[in-house]
Amino acid sequence: MDSQWKSTFREEIEDFKDTIGAFDRGELDRKAYKGMSGGMGSYAQRDPARHMLRLRMAGGRLTMERLKFLAGAVERGQAGRIKLTTCQTIQLHDLSADQVPQLMEQAMDSAIYSKGGGGDNPRNVMCSPLAGVQPGECFAPTPWAEAAADYLLSICREIHMPRKLKIAFSNGVDDSVHTAFRDMGFLARPDGAFSLRIAGGLGAAGPAMGVLAAERVEPRQVLYYIRAMIDTFCAHGNYENRAKARTRFMQETLGPDGLKKAFLDNVAARMAEGGLDVEPPAAPAPKSGDGWIVHPRAIPQKQPGLYAVKYHPIGGLLPPDKPGQLYRLLQNVEGAEIRVAPDETLYLINLTAAEADRALAATGDGACTEFEHSVACIGAAVCQQGVRDSQSTLRALVDAVRAAGVPDGALPRICVSGCPSSCSAHQAGAIGFQGGVKLVDQTPQPAFRMYLGGSDRPGEARFGQLAGAILEADLPALLTELGLAAAARGESWAQWSAAHPEERDAIIAKYA
Ligand code: SF4
Predict the structure, then answer these.
(1) Among the four 5, 162, 214, 242, which has the fewest Cβ within 10 Å?
(2) Residues 436, 387: contact at Cβ < 8 Å?
């Protein structure tokens, strides 16, 4: 970002010190404060004396510069819990009112801008986590995602949208960023262009797949399409009712064809105006690999002899000592970078076999099975909107599944959201849970809605079907029984669930 933009943000941080101070002293209520703090990337937690700061990083790129900032924040005692999020950001939790603006300012020096991290703003731009190194990808969309992120930050003060806008770029082989159902989803094609879906999304009022708006978008023209989507949203979005304000509701008010026409008219108008072309980036100099390594967490890159090492802290909660440990490990490794994936996994990329070996040793404390790679939002113990504590629920499930000896693969990765806001994207999980309550003898009890059969694989995106409401206390027994039943047949979850749906549904029915 340019120096003028940064200087304005510094002034905003100065003003924000007064705002957060007023909230801390009880002079501002929660709702009023939320409306002001979201635009700076911070929210108060359930305990109003504690705060969260969301660190944006386009495409989840945790560069060495950014990792150093994170390690320094921990060393200075400025971070409590560190949460990897499904939007490829990193959230620092449990901060005091004094720490939040300090961290905002310090983060800026490491190219991390919390501005627009919440509220009705364009949010962190997402990108396939292994873009640029993944075998079989159509092309790496990273430069276009970064150009989009810079552009959106540059205009965020001049636009006033009805609600937030989420944009994702996929490399064509990994759609964990959910281009099929984002506000804007750019999917790389083998011919070097993007196909584009618009006005998709998840959430309390029901999910919607995006409308296929353009089948061949030239990468250098992505900003025209993004600006046109903002124009369309501002012209046709709902400013009256927040529950109906996200872009997907324009599918209802305009109809899919009407929405597509309005959008493409705006694209044509922005193109006629010009000035938003993105220059193709220079290709980075390739690093040479050497040696080979075979390990379930060492993923061969498309560059021969180089590896990405996968590390998934349970529930996406990064141990506080990990940023410092990883920085010391990688700071002098040529080309090394970390990517935050939407399933709360970290990928340490561009490592030779010997470097990967050391990275594996430093990250052995993470998930060991597919089930342990499950996704959980921060949950109601921290989040003021939450209904159920997703983190403690997932912990209890991991402990129960380990104790029962359910083998790897017999249960899928699950997604747990603490409320209908769907922050874990539970609708797209093979098994998804949404926090709520269930009436038992007219008394509300802690429970989760269970969804089955969702998918985010490219070309197979679908939402799961509601399978029932399960008491929170019954979840460990249910998951364990399902996993042991698949294991008893010697099948993976996907095989067993497809081949024996009546067996699966009979087990669920006992608890639902
Ligand atoms: S799903 Fe609900 S509880 Fe979880 S982080 Fe989102 S808003 Fe909070």
Answers:
(1) 242
(2) yes
Beta-bridge partners for 451: 432, 466
**Tens digit of each residue's pLDDT (9 = 90 or more) over 52-102:** 999 999 999 999 999 999 999 999 988 889 999 999 999 999 999 999 999
Distance 455 CA to ligand 1 centre (A): 21
**Chain segment 134-157, per-residue pLDDT in tens:** 999 999 999 999 999 999 999 999
CA–CA distance, 434 with 449 (Å, rounded to integer): 5
User: Looking at ligand 1, which atom is closest to the CA of residue 384?
Assistant: 8
**What are the structural domains of the chain?**
3-108 (3.90.480.20), 136-273 (3.30.413.10), 371-511 (3.30.413.10)
Q: Which residue has the tokens 């038992």?
A: 440
In angstroms, what is the span from residue 462 Cα to ligand 1's centroid? 21
Separation CA 68–CA 325 (nearest Å): 10
* Closest residue CA from atom 6 of ligand 1: 423
Ligand 1 centroid to 382 CA: how many Å?
Answer: 9
How many angstroms separate the CA atoms of 98 and 161, rounded?
A: 30
Separation CA 63–CA 348 (nearest Å) = 10
* Beta carbons of 126 and 177 less than 8 angstroms apart: yes
Q: What atom of ligand 1 comes closest to residue 380's alpha carbon?
A: 3
Q: 409: closest CA among 371, 441, 379?
A: 371
What pLDDT digit, counting tens, does each position of 362-400 carry? 999 999 999 999 999 999 999 999 999 999 999 999 999
Indicate the residue type of 77: G
d(CA 106, CA 9): 12
pTM for the complete prediction?
0.95
Measured in Å, residue 86 CA sits from the centre of ligand 1 at 11
Angle at 343 between CA 166 and CA 509, to 5 degrees: 105
Interacting residues of 139 by C-beta distance below 8 A, sequence separation 6+: 171, 172, 188, 192
Output the ligand 1 site: residues, CB below 6 A. Answer: 377-380, 383, 385-386, 390, 417-419, 421, 423
> Which two tokens mark 96?
């005091």
208, 166 contact by CB (below 8 A) = no
